[in-house]
Amino acid sequence: MEHIHTIYGIAGAAAIGLLTACGTQQRDTVLQEAGVSRELAQFRKEQFGQVRYNLFFSIPETKQEPIKGNAEIQLSLKEKQPIIIDFQGDASQVALVLLNGQPVPYEVKNEHIILPAERSVVGTNKVTVDFIPADQSLNRRDEFLYTLLVPDRARTAFPCFDQPDMKSLFTLTLEVPAEWQAVSNGAIGATDTVSVAGRKTISFNETEPLSTYLFAFTAGKFVRETYSRDGREISVYHRETDPKKVAQCPAIASEVFDALAWLEDYTAVPYPFAKYDLIILPGFQYGGMEHTGATFYTDRRMFLNENSTLNEQLSRSALIAHETAHMWFGDYVTMQWFDDVWTKEVFANYFASQIVSPLYPDVNHALNFMQDYIPPAYSEDRTAGANPIKQDLDNLSNAGLVYGNIIYDKSPVVLEMLIKKMGKDAFRKGIQEYLKTYAYGNATWDGLISILDKYTDDDLATWSHIWVNEKGMPEVAASIVGDSLVVTQSDPFNRGLNWPQELACLIVPKTGHPQEISVSLGRNSNSFRKELKMHPDVGSFVIPNIDGKGYGFFRLNEADAEACATYLPTCDNELLRGSLLITLYENLMNQTMSPAFYMEAMLKYLPQEKNSLLFSAALGYIGNCQRLFLMDTKPLEKALWEIVSTSPVPQHRLQAFRLYRSVAESPEAVARLYELWKKEQAPAGCSLSENDYISMSYALALRLPEQADEIVHIQQSRITNPDRKREYAFISPSVSPRKEMRDSVFASLLIAENRRVEPWASAALANLNHRSRQEEAVAYIRPALEKMQEVQQTGDIFFPTAWVRALLSGHTSPEAREEVDAFFATHPDYPPMLANKIRQQADHLYRIKH
Length: 850
Prior knowledge:
- By secondary structure, the chain is an alpha+beta fold.
- Helices cover 44% and strands 18% of the residues.
- Strand 18 (288-289) and strand 19 (295-298) form a beta hairpin.
């Protein structure tokens, strides 16, 4: 942490010195860099005082008509300076600029509106801009729209100072069709009719201090449900038409109330904003987005299917808790710069796991934590595209690329290590001081560590550097040498790093009782040796990381891998089984065991697993093994259908059926699926949702090309919800049996406007690159990779990863790998952060032996 902070500190200080001391031409050259550079952000933070926005948007009913906006920006200056306002638009989108009520010369350049220093005044300045916003971040659909401005998209919607450390006060007025509703961060202050027939204005109260990325509004045709508890009121807005799904709104609100109460108690900080409303949106890009007073959620995660699985229930609860935790960690205290964005995500995910625990008393939450976070973290940390938790970021135009499984999933594992080092009580006291110190302000990870240091004798800075600032994970090997257990860890990037961590190993003898041994690594050495209490007999083996608290690739030798796989179904410890599942899969991916052996062992184990979390994890691993290594599907089909037909656990039947639907290739399996879909008759003991039948229709259209058109037509006629009908109409051409149609769909996805609803675009691209069509779909790889920079510029933060995952996950051939290699060969200076996203999703192509 120390060396990165020092580098940034020097850069920032130098930049500010340059801006205030150098000549005007040189100064303007620095300030006018496109995007929001760290230097520009630091300059404005130093020179500007409190900022207030008074915003107005006139929203037409039809999305073909442009929205018109007006922004009044009030700021104070410590000295006469050029006022450089962020606005990602061209000069034609700016109709008028006033400074302190008077017309002022201005320039629209490099994503900025630049006002000359000589026209500014020391003290209060008011800038007024009439503008037309870009549609990019307004997410305009038929009958509704919503803003999504994270991390630096506010400047596409209105002129602003688009950086997280300039918290500002927002007032908003919307003019909308009379039958529409609107929600924003502040409470509604007034609603008035206007002279134009069928129109009204909705004015919202001023907000608490917010970063620009947290400002939000939505408007459209919504249904509102309102709930109260202990004097607090929450409104849920949605567009759902299924009565069974609408009936879930009280449970959703109840979990929000529970999360708010838990966080108020833990932090000793009352909910710090005026209200908490939530809007459930069809086709929303993320699981949720934590706008204060107007938190957005996706309908797919919030409205559960009838007879939902435990994983789906836990996922919704964790999502609600995650976004609610952000009210304190991210909104109340915000990171200073997006290189520390993980400091809000780590708390949201970690505290979500704590909030959810009492809601599900029968769940093994240590196991759930391990299964939620470690596998997705490994999926990126094992690759050539691995990145540190904290990444360098010079310009906010790249801030979206910081996001990924490392910050969402590795960081909670690391935080749990930190809490174990400090103790829960000491950590809680440190967190409460952190919130009090930075209330309604901005903080850094360094600032948090300096506070936590007061509550522990451990060297947190050194520990933090290894786990936070360095990429990758250790490779750990445990073996029996003579009468001792020997554990070593090594750095796969050959930097000589020592990862300090505590883990536990189990020595399993051929006869007698297993022996558990605690292992400490990385403090003074990367090796550990301990003499065993019993003399290990022939056939004894080691199971590493039995409680899942260690982090790394735990390499097994061939004999131990076989022994661990055999031991798995006989083990009565759920946490140990969960850790073994992860270890065995990582050894499959690192080619220390054959896919055939792995699949055989897993199919013996799966029917015996009674724990729903472990059953679900095992299904996912089995599906990945089948997808990546392309084995005969018949043994898997047979095993899955046996579970569908006989399992005493209904959700296991359903989950097995969903994998069966995905892998079915034999004529018998495809014919069975077709009959189930055609008759809308679920297998005995299963309850299939509309989404299940939609997914079946895609799978069948791919497998039965001669009947594909009929299948799609019938399925389209079955859907009644208008939003889902639009979704199906968009995606279904991607499963067409006609190559010219699929080529046309692919060509349309290369146009930014056609990628506006990102989940739909990702689903269509994945269908085009389905494993059954990968031979001809290889031709899509290079053109789609060539679009990655545009996808980053025009899409939201998770879309570059979703785009390249949809493109490559169905491919396993040497030709696909050659296409990726050729792309990088022709782009030797490709932006590193974007290259990492590609390498993460292409990783499997380099692990498959042909």
